[in-house]
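Collaborator request, handled under Task 6.
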Amino acid sequence: VIVALAAGASYAAIQWRARTRIDDALDVFACHGVAGILGAMLTGVFATKRVNPAGADGWLAGNPAQLWIQLLAVGATISLSGGVTAVIVVAMRAVMPVRLPIDQEIRGVDLVEHGEEAYHGGDIGELAGRHASLGDSVLLPASDLAPAPSHPQANAA
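C-alpha cells returned to the collaborator:
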C-alpha cells in the first residue's frame, strides 16, 4: 500500500513540477523527496509489531503517537539535510563560483564546459534514426539497429 501511494504521489509531483518553473532537472525531489516523506509518514500509519516485534505499532494498530514521531523524524531529516547542504554551498562559494554567468547558461553548460553539445540543439534524431526531440519516447525497431562492427584485434586472439 505504501509503495503504491508513494509511487502515485511521486508521479503526480513530477507531472505538477513539469508545469512550473521549479528547477529540478532530474526530478530528484519529486521522485525521492516526495516518496521518502510520504513513505516515512505512512510508516507511522501502517506500522505493526506483528511484522516487526522490535518496532512500534502505528496509527492503525492503536498508536497514533507514532505518526507524530514520524513527522518529527521527517522534519529533522529535512532540517539536517537542508542545513548541511547550505553549509556546503556557502563553503563552495568561498572558493569557486557555483553558477555560470547567464550568457554561458544560455549557450549551454555542455558547450561551455565540455566544448560540445549533448543533444545538438535538442534534436536527438541521431539516436533514434529519425527525427525526435528531447522528451519524446524513442523506441527503436530491430530493423533500425545496425550490427556492431567487428574489430580485427578482438578476432586475432
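The cover message to the collaborator said: "The helical segments are 2-18, 28-46, 65-95, 102-107, 109-114, 125-128, 152-156. The chain has a mean pLDDT of 83. Please let us know whether this matches your experimental observations."
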